[in-house]
Amino acid sequence: MNRVRLAALSFAVGGILFLLYQSVRPYADETALEGAAAMASPAWVTAHLAASAGFILATLGLLGLHLALGARLTLPGAVVAWIGAGLALPYYGAETFGLNVIGARAVRDQDATLLELAEQFRFAPVAVTMFLIGLALLAIGVITAAVGVWRSGALQRWSGVPLSVGFALFIPQFYGTPALRITHGALLAVGGLWMAYNLWRTGAGISRP
């Protein structure tokens, strides 16, 4: 399997994982014991691990895209996205495992006040700054790569647009309803699958030794 098709698979699986993240993640009042139970659940860990894997696969897809196209703008986009993922993933790691432990303790002790620890982590200045900068850089990287795809002419010009829109909306979607967040996951899935389809369909023509 050549690098183009490996990149296509990375985009496809990464996009599906973002949809899994938003649809499997339990939604509840995270100031009450119901929210603690959600954080303590296996679904919470599964969903956030899916998001982390989605970031990794999306950035690997951008690398494969650059290796396939060799377009001038695709490498800077990939590098910026890698940096963004590196800054965002520690926050997701704490969401995955740290909040899971806090939620489990709150449920065990029947003490919703322990969830204040989750809020203290989420809004700690260094943690939230790294996270927001990381997501912003991921969006910039994907958009930059999409511009490279548009200019290269090797794929359909619109190949990278849905994925770019999905990453551009990553920060705003946190403030949406569960339905809007699941819709955002669906947008990322469509974007990843659309990019994968275009790469796979034209892979033989743009693959290089």
Automatic annotation (TrEMBL):
The keyword Transmembrane applies. It comes from the Bacteria. Keywords: Membrane, Transmembrane, Transmembrane helix. The chain crosses the membrane at residues 44-66, 73-92, 123-146, 158-176, 182-200. This is DUF4386 domain-containing protein.
